[in-house]
Amino acid sequence: MLLHAPAKLNLCLYLGRVRADGLHELCSLFEPIGLADLIEVSGAERDEVLCPGVDGENLARRALAALREAGWEREPLRIEIDKRVPVAAGLGGGSADAAAILRLAAGEVPDLPGIAAGLGADVPSQLRPALALVQGAGERVEPLPPPAGHAALLLPGGGGLSTAEVFAEADRLGLGREDRELEQLAAQLRREAGAGASPLAFPELLVNDLEPAARSLRPEIGAALEALRGAGAPVAILSGSGPTAVGLFPDLAAARAAAARLDRDDAIVCEAGVAP
Does pTM top 0.90 for this prediction? Predict the structure, then answer.
């Protein structure tokens, strides 16, 4: 069996205050993109999760273990991940892998969303990759209609930026909005994105509150965003906690033309708003 685990963009990310559980309240608009990890699943003598080229623990292994703890009795599996989504780049690649594994048990294990929330903030939204308004610490996922067609040009900048470090820097900088403002922003996003429009139709809402913190740790993010604007991107944003800078374009042709102008080895062009 071959699974696709699509990356996601945070079209916006509004940061709230730290909650009693130590997590931040968030308001974000997630959408899948055409860039995806490929996961091969086959039978085995014992459960095994392989991710060549990526060291250490990964969320897919934890997802499989969580399914077993929940009583999933499918035969032992060998899972091999072909990583195509840059690691620690603000694109949710690890969360997408975990969600793909959880989907194997759909209808067989109760409360997959609860299991997903226990694995990480981005995992619940990736159980069904689609445009969604995401609130809470990632556990409140509201699906929205598919957006009008558009494309993305990604500049991952090598990845490797720790989400925890970015949030810690945001706290140091005193960033964060009050709950009432987050609810007002959620209502605006629900109204604009809920109409099925391209995100290019509401650029004033495409704001990432983590950008100052991420740029503090990786100043080159600012140069990448400016490069995208200079190459003609109508909107240039930071995805997630970074360091991936994203240019949004009306179609693939425009995104490819901008990539040619930039002539960067790390540039990735893909469809946005739809999973592969």
Answer: yes
